[in-house]
């Protein structure tokens, strides 16, 4: 009897468990089944990455480039001796201003002047002989050949005189242009050989400013344009006019050399100084500028992420000018694109994203 009651109790317990315990999970599943795709949609929405976006548009930007430059003299020359001789006069003061054509040095010319005097005596004699022979030729007392020899001697002496006069000019070393005398290399009384340096003359008003720019800016650099520059440690800004552009790009550095001219009446710019050059190029009226934090460097270049149909799409871009907060996009994006600017590290291509308002 007890056994029958025990079995009956177990059966009752199983039935109650079936009705009140095991039916609840089923009911939950039925509830979810009734919701259908709504449950799946909720889970999907919960996995989207929240991001900030930047709407790409066109704007006007000033095109400026900075470059390092060097101050060069307008003219500079090392005066040297053209002939051999003893230096008998050195009429210069180091650092002084000198005018064009002013005598700087004099080489002993005593021997050359003696040769010139000898030629002068021979010329005088040859002219007298030529005059007498002309009279004799008129009465046919001499033949024409003798007269031609005398006439030729006169012409030869004239040529020898020009040679000696040219050598005499070389004994006087004069300033080829106005400027300041540098430090002298030799003293009075020294014997000079051809090519011996004597002194340097520097013309520093105006001065030249030489600088280089990347080759991609070469179409925007024009002769006659104006650049600004600053001296190192001096906040003042000065201007210079572009004088010339090198017709060849440096094939090693891929840069273009530019030369500008600046007035220097007070001698403030000393040749050899370092300057910082600012060149204003043509303004870009339709530039696409985006935040720099949106750029992701990759092995093949640079990429960004844009939002399309609720997903992050990877786009390779080509960049141009850069400021402290923005960078120009030359290719890859178009106006109206929704550019992702936050959470970029955690984003993968085709990942679901949610734009934060």
TrEMBL record:
<comment type="similarity">
    <text>Belongs to the membrane fusion protein (MFP) (TC 8.A.1) family.</text>
</comment>
<dbReference type="InterPro" id="IPR058625">
    <property type="entry name" value="MdtA-like_BSH"/>
</dbReference>
<feature type="domain" description="YknX-like C-terminal permuted SH3-like">
    <location>
        <begin position="288"/>
        <end position="348"/>
    </location>
</feature>
<dbReference type="Pfam" id="PF25917">
    <property type="entry name" value="BSH_RND"/>
</dbReference>
<dbReference type="InterPro" id="IPR058637">
    <property type="entry name" value="YknX-like_C"/>
</dbReference>
<protein>
    <submittedName>
        <fullName>MexH family multidrug efflux RND transporter periplasmic adaptor subunit</fullName>
    </submittedName>
</protein>
<dbReference type="InterPro" id="IPR058792">
    <property type="entry name" value="Beta-barrel_RND_2"/>
</dbReference>
<dbReference type="Pfam" id="PF25989">
    <property type="entry name" value="YknX_C"/>
</dbReference>
<feature type="domain" description="CusB-like beta-barrel">
    <location>
        <begin position="209"/>
        <end position="277"/>
    </location>
</feature>
<dbReference type="InterPro" id="IPR006143">
    <property type="entry name" value="RND_pump_MFP"/>
</dbReference>
<feature type="domain" description="Multidrug resistance protein MdtA-like barrel-sandwich hybrid">
    <location>
        <begin position="76"/>
        <end position="202"/>
    </location>
</feature>
<dbReference type="Pfam" id="PF25954">
    <property type="entry name" value="Beta-barrel_RND_2"/>
</dbReference>
């Amino acid at each position: 009897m007890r056994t029958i009651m025990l079995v009956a109790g177990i059966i009752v317990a199983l039935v109650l468990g079936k009705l009140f315990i095991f039916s609840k999970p089923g009911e939950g599943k039925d509830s979810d089944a009734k919701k259908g795709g709504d449950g799946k949609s909720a889970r999907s929405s919960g996995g989207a990455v929240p991001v900030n976006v930047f709407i790409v548009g066109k704007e006007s930007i000033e095109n400026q480039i900075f470059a390092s430059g060097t101050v060069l003299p307008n003219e500079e020359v090392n005066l040297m001796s053209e002939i051999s001789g003893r230096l008998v006069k050195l009429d210069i003061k180091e650092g002084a201003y000198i005018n064009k054509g002013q005598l700087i040095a004099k080489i002993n010319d005593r021997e050359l002047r003696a040769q010139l005097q000898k030629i002068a005596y021979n010329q005088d004699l040859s002219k007298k002989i030529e005059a007498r022979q002309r009279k004799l030729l008129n009465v046919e007392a001499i033949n024409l050949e003798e007269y031609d020899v005398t006439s030729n001697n006169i012409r030869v002496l004239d040529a020898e005189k020009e040679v000696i006069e040219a050598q005499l000019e070389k004994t006087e070393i004069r300033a080829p242009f106005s400027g300041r005398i540098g430090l002298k290399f030799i003293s009075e009384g020294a014997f000079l050989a051809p090519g011996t340096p004597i002194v340097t003359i520097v013309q520093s008003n105006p001065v030249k400013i030489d600088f280089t720019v990347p080759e991609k800016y070469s179409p925007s650099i024009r002769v006659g344009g104006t650049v600004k520059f600053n001296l190192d440690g001096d906040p003042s800004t000065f201007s210079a006019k572009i004088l010339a552009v090198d017709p060849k790009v440096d094939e090693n550095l891929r840069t273009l050399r530019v030369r500008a001219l600046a007035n220097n009446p007070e001698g403030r710019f000393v040749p050899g100084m370092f300057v910082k050059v600012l060149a204003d190029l043509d303004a870009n009226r339709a530039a696409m500028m985006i935040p720099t934090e949106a750029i992701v460097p990759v092995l093949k270049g640079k990429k960004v992420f844009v939002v399309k149909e609720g997903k992050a799409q990877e786009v390779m871009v080509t960049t141009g000018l850069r400021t402290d907060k923005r960078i120009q996009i030359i290719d890859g994006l178009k106006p109206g694109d929704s550019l992702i600017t936050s959470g970029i590290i955690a984003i993968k291509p085709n990942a679901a994203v949610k734009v934060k308002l």
